[in-house]
Each structure stands twice: as C-alpha cells, then as structure tokens.
Design brief:
heterodimer; A: alpha/beta; 6-stranded mixed beta sheet; 5-stranded mixed beta sheet; globular; B: alpha+beta; 4-stranded mixed beta sheet; 7 helices
C-alpha cells in the first residue's frame, strides 16, 4: 500500500542515510543544519466525505475524511513542517454537495488544517455565488493566478499566490485553473476571464523566486496531467516555464505512484504529481533543505543545484 | 558578563555577511492509500460529519429497485452507459406529450465506473449522476444530428439510446440509423439531451440555435423515476451489452 522512493538520488544522499549512518561523516564536515518540509496533498476529492460505500463496487471502502484526518494528524506528530494542499474539485460527486452545497467539505478541510487549495472547474458547479457563499466556512486560502475575477463576486476572495515560511524555509505556492470554455457554463462563471496559464505561471514563479526569495515553488494546478491533443497540461506547463519545482495537479484524476520527473525550459528538474481522486490517496512529498553559511551546499543532490 | 561582546556577537549572528542560505538537497515521496482497515476514524471529524450524514441517510438509503448484474462504464458502448441512455429514453417517452427519437448523455457525466448488483438506493443514483443537470428536448434537423454524432464519434462514444446505431470511421459517424432507418439530413428529430451539453458543454457549441423544450427535470430524478417505475412493474434493472456504436471494421 505504500510506495516510497527517493526519486532524485543521483550523487545525493537520501533522507534515510542522513538520519542514520551519515551523521558521523556530516559531523566531520561541520554538520549542516537540515530542514525537512513535508508537503501533503489531495486533488479532486469531489465531496467524498464518507468512504466509498461497501456495495461491491470497485472502490468500496476506500477514502473518507475521518480516516484521512487521522493519517494527517499522525504525520503532523512526526513532522514539524507540514503543508497541506489541495489541487481543486473539492465540490461535486456525492449527495453531501447536493444537500449542503459544499459547507461540509469546507468545514472538514478547515478542521484538518489545509493551508491552501486551488479552484477546479467543479468548484463552480453552484456558480460563483454558490462558491463565495461557502468560503466563510473555509479557514484556508484559495489560490489562482490565471482567472481574472475582478468583475465577479470572487474579487478579493482569491489570491494569486501565498508564501509559507517554515523553519526559515520559504515555500511559494500559486494556483492555476483550467480553461472554463466548454467546461464551465457561462451562467456559472459569469465575467471571470481566463488568462494564459503558461504566461501567468512564468510571471508568478519568477516573482516568487526573485522578489519573494522563495526556496521552493509549488504550483497547484487544475489543468490536468496530460492530453493527447495539444491542450495545455501539467506536462506542457513543466516544459514551457521556469521557476516551478513541484506541480501538484488535478482534473484528469490521474493516479501517479510517484512524482514524474520532468525538465523545465532551462533543463532544470520539475516534479509533477497527482493522486487520482476522491481522497483515496494522500500524497506526500518531503523536501529536504540544507541551511548553512558556507556559501555552497555540502550534501546537495547535483540535480537540484543550479 | 560583557554585554558589549554579547551584543556584537548577536549583531554578527543576525546581520553578518555569512547569513544562512537554504539549499535544496533532496526530494522524496510517498503515497498513502486510505483503505477500510488502514486508519481509524478521527473522532472530531466523525462528530462533525454525523449530523449532516444522519439527515442525508434518511433520503439516500431508500431502496428503490434491484439490479441483477454489475454494470460497468466504458467506450464506445458498455452496460452502464447503455442502461443510462436507455433509461433516459424510456422515461422521457413516458412523459405526457413527449416523444423523443433518441437520448444521449455526455460520457463524463456518468460519474461511477461500476454500478453494483443488488439493492439500488437513491444514494446510488446520486453517485451515478451527481450533477444537477436537467433534461432538454432539442428539435434537430438530420444534418445537425450528424454533427452531434460526429462529435460523439470523435470522442470514441457517449451513452446513446438503443434507437441509434452508427460506426466510427476516421473519427466520424458513418452509416447512421435511427429506429433502424438511415438518418435523413432534411428530417427533424427529437433529441433528449442534458442541459449541460445543450448549452455547449464538452465543446458541443454548435447546437445552441436548435429549438428546445426544457423538461425542468433533473437527469438524476428521471433515472430515479425510471427505476421506481420498473420496480412497480416487478422488473429489476438489467444490463444490455448491445452495440450502438461500432468501431471501424465491426
């Protein structure tokens, strides 16, 4: 049930090595301070509050908010620096949404301590008005950089990005949404204007890395992992931008066993991940940082030094 | 204690040229699958859910029918998509004063991959069709119907009622028949289509100008009514694997 792998390991030391036999060696080298950031993520939970019913269907018994909450709590007990993120389509898929219009989902995510979410196309299923109505139940941020909402009720309710500082590490998180044309009826998204996600991503990632001095940039994307046609997706986003380190995706309900390694416009690594849908899987990415005053990294993996 | 030295040291520590820098050293990952026996329920979260669930269960747990065999979703045809479209077709035609030639549903609107055998509850139908889409009846000339079926062929098949048959040739619909007769480009057909599609969803934007009648009934409620009507006649739901959309060479 668990897949674990150091997916960037060339010439680097794995976290396991650091916490065991590597210590003596590191002590000799001046023992750099290591900080681990634990990123937990979901996408396309689609109002799956209870586990799938035990009715003999394929996903029976899987998922469920109360179980996910226990798991998240357990991880928080073990890790100091946890970020909990969602890549959109929080709404729609079970009667909880039809009956309570998203109130339950927002309250549960708030109680679990979500830090931020981006907006999926289904989060507009009861219109912008319906979405805005549920926002008071959420104590986390809604991030999107490529929907211009200034002429809608969402104005001032979503942010392009947010920077989280954990143990001296600055993590920049921004959101991208899918083209609503042909996907979200005009009556529901009204005067919201879709902007080119690639252009917007470049702009925001640059700002996060250079002005906000972020050490790591995460894109919460609801573009979808990959398409047969030339439609913009996470794989295209990764290849055609600079500055993003990790894309947490959604929309296509793609189950990736581990993040896929891609290269950005300058050939630097970008990891793309997505964990299916319905809260069946909680994804986890641990990012390890070395902090020192030496002016260079002592144990860094060559691939990530640029 | 020399406070001057302490002050100086602190100053250097905080603002000195050798400020700490952060270097990305390694990235690792792990997926946790949330299975039935894997984790206990968080009590606080369960307590939050309970009052909502209680109210919901009253409606959702009502058994409205029986399903003989598991139905699954697939393209170009499948037992579940066939059943879905046929149920819409039957129930629309059962409505007073409505006569449709065929019914379709967009593939993405069928939200479960399998519909289990056994009791069918209101909740099961909600999961199958969670969207609050309503049904429209469009009056379409044959040439528009052809365009619609071309789009369906292009996406390798959608749920379509048994009154229709065609073959996918080079991404288009060929040899189209409705009620066993070749499609007549000049004839008008009545098509039962969810409002989402009729309003241009899934890039079906070319049919906005067709005359339409709005049933103002949710697709989901049409399915629920169909199941209840079958049950009242003593009939269980049954899978129909027949092919409406054939692939090239079939």
């Amino acid at each position: 049930m668990i897949s674990r792998r150091t997916f960037i390991r060339q010439a680097g030391l794995s976290a396991t090595f650091l916490s065991s036999g590597g210590l003596d060696l590191l002590a000799l080298a001046g023992q750099p301070e290591m900080v681990k950031i634990t990123i937990l993520h979901t996408n396309d939970v689609h109002s799956r509050v209870d586990p799938f019913p035990m009715d003999g269907s394929r996903n029976q018994g899987l998922g469920g908010a109360a179980k996910r909450a226990t798991l998240i709590k357990k991880i928080r007990e073990q890790e100091k620096n946890v970020l909990l993120l969602d890549a959109g389509d929080i709404f729609q898929g079970t009667p909880y949404f039809n009956f309570y219009q998203g109130e339950v989902e927002m309250k549960l995510m708030s109680a679990m301590g979500y830090d931020a979410a981006t907006l999926g196309n289904h989060d507009f299923d009861s219109g912008i008005e319906g979405l805005v109505k549920q926002m008071p139940h959420a104590n986390f941020s809604f991030l999107n950089a490529n929907y211009n909402v200034k002429d809608t009720l969402l104005n001032g309710k979503i942010k392009e990005y947010q920077v989280f500082t954990k143990s001296g590490i600055r993590i920049g998180v921004f959101g991208l949404g899918i083209d609503p044309d042909g996907l979200i009826p005009k009556t529901l998204c009204q005067d919201m204007i879709y902007l080119d996600p690639i252009k917007k991503a470049e702009e925001i990632a640059f700002k996060l890395k250079n002005e906000e001095k972020c050490d790591f940039v995460i894109c919460l994307s609801h573009l979808g992992y990959k398409y047969n046609e030339n439609k913009v997706s996470d794989t295209i986003l990764a290849a055609e931008t600079n500055g993003i380190d990790l894309i947490i995706g959604g929309h296509t309900h793609t189950f990736l066993n581990e993040p896929v390694q891609a290269k950005n416009k300058s050939g630097k690594p970008v990891a793309i991940t997505q964990v299916g849908w319905a809260g069946i899987i909680l994804g986890r990415v641990d990012v390890l940082f070395e902090r020192n005053r030496k002016g260079k990294c002592m144990i860094c993996n060559n691939m990530y030094v640029g | 204690m020399n406070f001057k030295i302490l002050y100086f040291t602190t100053f250097v520590f905080l603002f000195g040229s050798c400020a700490k820098k952060n270097y990305l050293a390694d990235v690792t990952s792990r997926n946790y699958r949330i299975e039935k026996g894997s984790y206990t329920n968080d009590v606080a979260i369960s307590d939050m859910i309970a009052p909502y669930k209680e109210k919901l269960d009253l409606t959702m747990n009502e058994v409205i029918g029986q399903n003989t065999t598991e139905m699954t979703k697939g393209k170009p045809n499948s037992t579940l998509t066939n059943w879905f479209a046929d149920a819409l077709y039957d129930e629309m035609n059962h409505m007073q004063g409505v006569k449709v030639d065929f019914a379709i549903q967009n593939y993405g609107g069928v939200r479960v991959n399998s519909f289990a055998a056994g009791n069918v509850t209101v909740g099961n139908v909600y999961e199958l069709m969670p969207f609050d889409n309503t049904m429209f009846v469009l009056t379409m000339k044959g040439d528009k119907v052809q365009q619609l079926f071309d789009k369906i062929a292009e996406s390798n098949g959608w749920p379509i009622s048994k009154s229709v048959q065609f073959r996918v040739e080079f991404g288009k619909a060929a040899d189209v028949t409705i009620h066993g007769k070749p499609l007549d480009p000049a004839k008008e057909y009545m098509a039962a289509i969810p409002d989402y599609v009729a309003n241009g969803g899934d890039n079906m934007d070319f049919r906005r100008d067709c005359p339409k009648w709005e049933s103002q009934k949710y697709v989901r409620d049409i399915l629920i009514n169909y199941i209840k009507r079958q049950t009242s006649m003593g009939l269980p739901l049954s899978a129909d694997p027949s092919k409406r959309i054939l692939l090239s060479g079939e």
